[in-house]
Amino acid sequence: MPLTEKEDILNRGVEEIIVKSEFIDKLNSGQKMRLKMGFDPSAPDIHVGHAVGLRKLRQLQEIGHQVVLIVGDWTAQIGDPSGRSQTRNMLSIEEVHSNAQTYLDQFFKIVDKERTEIRWQSEWFGPFTLTNVIELTSKFTVAQILAREDFAKRFGENQPISITELLYPLLQGYDSVAIESDVEFGGTDQKFNLLVGRELQQMRGMKAQQCFIMPLLPGTDGVQKMSKSLGNYIGIDEAPQEIFGKVMSIPDSLILPYFDWLTDTPTKEIIEIRNSLESQSVNPIELKKNVAHKLVTDFHDAKSASLSRDFFEKTVQGGQAPDDMAEYVIPSGDDAAGIKLSNVLVSSGLTSSSGEARRLIEQGAVRINEIQVTQNQPVGQLEKGILRAGRRRYVRLI
Predict the structure, then answer these.
(1) What SS3 state is found at 312?
(2) Is 83 a residue whose pLDDT tops 70?
(3) Domain 3-214 sits in which CATH superfamily?
(4) How far is CA 339 from the centre of its chain?
(5) What share of the chain is helix, strand, coil (3-state, %, to 5)?
(6) Residue 86 pLDDT > 50, yes or no?
(7) What angle do helix axes 284-299 and 302-312 make, rounded to 10 degrees?
(8) What is the DSSP letter of 136?
(9) Radius of gyration of the chain from Cα atoms?
(10) Cα angle 54-60-66, degrees, rounded to a multiple of 5
(11) Which pTM was predicted?
């Protein structure tokens, strides 16, 4: 393997490798490694924060290693408590399976499906008996589990922790035993769970897996980790213009991590980008356009990326309305009864919910013919023309 390729695997988008020297030995040996990554389909979509780990899997997959993708159809019903400040609601198996199908469709925008082994936890947890559960729980003490940061914090604050949540790290760790994992991948918030898998393997007389830990990608706010619940996410299945526009909204401090962790930009160019940012010899907006173009190309195609760039430059930077916007017929007469602007925003597809629509109206982010609308007015008061929500979403009212 070329030295630069190995350095990229070991250093780009990597927080920590446990144990790094052992992982390097396996990498150098030519041995085909089983690379484990598990996802709980507790929600139907994934975002570019997940792509940091998936891209690492693809890198190793392309040099001959076996990706094993575990669908956590059992643990998703519990809900991963990692980084949570309160107990998670349990999901039904129907919700989990529905979410899982959407997840899998999106995973394979990054990872090669033909070279991926898909495993469902129900393969080994389905036949589990009470005896198996008791035997598993006997391997760890309550003190060991409560040592995990989020559990310790909740325990110290007298917040509830369910017994099912205490089981979660053991169940995730057992996955490593079941599929004979050589390396497990996860974010920094998963470190405890990955180490549990390593310990369980050793207890079973197996070779301990290596733990490949990736940094948590900050969201578009630049402060908190990317999360759909926080509204600071970029979904990999979102429309090209939406992905492009959201990338353009990130703070300048995230330009380098987005290039480094989410794109195949050569490391030499990454260094040049860092130097240009430090010397202020480049306009950060141009760098954001470049990384946005790369992400849209990866998740859609090059044509969509170019069109999204043109759209952004014309509408957001140039202040012009797009030529090919959708049309929406304003209801009239009896059809207009009880309908307000928020309903129009949802029906026309400019917002995904009435709550989002009302919030944008209150924030002054909704305009008709470039006149700000701050009241959720009845549809009968709306003028024909161009309705805009936020900076990038338009519809023509007729």
Answers:
(1) helix
(2) no
(3) HUPs (3.40.50.620)
(4) 35
(5) 50, 15, 35
(6) no
(7) 140
(8) H
(9) 24
(10) 90
(11) 0.77
Do 48 and 262 form a contact (C-beta atoms < 8 A)? yes
Q: For 248-258, how does the pLDDT look when each residue is reduced to its tens digit (9 = 90+)? A: 989 999 999 99
- For residue 140, report the phi and psi dihedrals to the nearest 5 degrees: -135, 155
In this prediction, residue 78 carries a pLDDT of 60
Output the pLDDT for position 398: 80
Around Cβ 319, how many Cβ atoms within 10 Å? 9
Domain at 240-317, CATH class: mainly alpha
Q: Does residue 252 contact residue 230 with C-beta atoms inside 8 Å?
A: no
Number of C-beta neighbours around residue 208 at 10 A: 19
Residue 250 CA: distances (Å) to CA of 64, 218, 225, 245: 35, 10, 13, 9
Residue range 150-209, pLDDT digits in tens: 778 878 888 887 777 788 888 889 999 999 999 999 999 888 889 999 999 999 999 999
Domain boundaries, the chain: 3-214, 240-317, 327-397
For 298, half-sphere exposure in the C-beta direction (CA atoms, 13 angstrom radius) is 25
Asked if 383 contacts 369 with a C-beta cutoff of 8 angstroms, the reply is: yes
Q: How far is CA 68 from CA 38, 78, 183, 291, 299, in A?
A: 8, 22, 10, 29, 22
- Please state the CATH superfamily assignment of the domain spanning residues 327-397 in this structure: RNA-binding S4 domain (3.10.290.10)
| 3-state SS class at 359 | helix
Structural tokens at position 102: 């959407």
Q: What is the token pair recorded at 16? A: 């920590």
Q: Judge if the upstream peptide bond of residue 346 is cis by omega within 30 degrees of 0.
A: no
> What is the reported pLDDT for 77?
66
SS3 at position 135: helix
Q: What tokens does 240 get? A: 């090209």
* Residue whose tokens read 């559960």: 133
- pLDDT tens by residue, 265-306: 999 999 999 999 999 999 999 999 999 999 999 999 999 999
Strands 371-372 and 393-397: unpaired
The amino acid present at 319, given as its one-letter code, is G
**Phi, psi of 327, deg, nearest 5:** -115, 150
